[in-house]
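To the team - adenosine-5'-triphosphate complex, inputs and output below.
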Amino acid sequence: MSLLELHDLAKSYGPVAALAGVDLAVASGTRTAIVGPSGCGKTTLLRLIAGFEAPDRGRIVLDGEVLADEAGAVPAHLRGIGLVAQDGALFPHLTVADNIGFGLARHAERRAERIAELAYIVGLDAAILKRRPHQLSGGQQQRVALARAMAMKPRLMLLDEPFSALDTGLRASMRKAVAELLEAAGITTILVTHDQAEALSFADQVAVMREGKFWQVGTPRELYLKPKDRMVAEFLGEALVLPARIAEGFAETPLGRIALETRERRDIARIMLRPEQVTLERASRQEAAAARPGLLYGEVTESEFAGASCAVAVKLLNSPDPPEAAAIGGRPLMLRKAGVDAPAVGEVVLIRVVGTAHVLA
Ligand code: ATP
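Output:
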């Protein structure tokens, strides 16, 4: 059952259409991630759901209750929605403990205990509970904001880049801890992030936003492996987009014949492979010169080491068929491989494709 429903939500600031008609259903107890380029309307959407702004058009329904439509809007503090803003938005005059406990009754039983528990959950040292926000780092402020929002036990939690001020290791562990925590508390969550990997690993549902609209909404797997178009494909990770001739469940491509998941009808199309679907095995020039039909060899022309990964450019040595080879205009394939044991410039490699290709719109 949907906890949150958005119907044709629109909001403009003067001539800027920040939201241009957004529809979304968020199932109860799930996590949705919204990704999209800067300025596409992500924060505006969260502010509308939280009740800090009113939509120009459309309807917001939470748990069957209309929160906003043309007739009016329920005030933010009555919505039961938690929002962790990008900058944390802490109360500067309150201590960390009082910020976290803001939504808890002053004389609530176990108040101090609950505050300490929340601080512990978000990884904050008890020693900083007496400090004020200006005495904290950006990452600590975000964690206080998260603990404060959790304390209120919201029906819906909105997270606007809550992990952005944290370094890589802490970011991953916080993300996991927060996901577990929200799940245990049964809190439905919407996360806005710039980090594609974060969106894919955190969420049950991902929405890719562009120019105030959702371009594609689906499971992380659907969006990563079956993006609607090149924009979604490249937004969610590195993609190898190749021209292809389509026939009977196969694509004839510059990398040879690759199976398709569906029987497409189009003749000419663009197909997408994720770089991890292309494997490179070291080979020799002699093997490449005497290549059996169907085996494809290349020469590494660039190899840029970046720690865990390495960007490798591979020039094809024996493309399967001149029209397909001509289609990529002799440009090398750009692949990202594991940094360990990546092939060096000048090495000859045997190229294989794993899995099926996806036809782009
Ligand atoms: P980012 O990822 O950079 O935070 P975003 O996707 O969250 O961006 P929004 O902050 O929602 O984008 O902004 C969407 C558009 O609306 C932008 O063009 C922005 O400049 C504009 N905008 C947002 N808030 C206002 C405002 N209060 N007044 C005028 N324009 C605004």
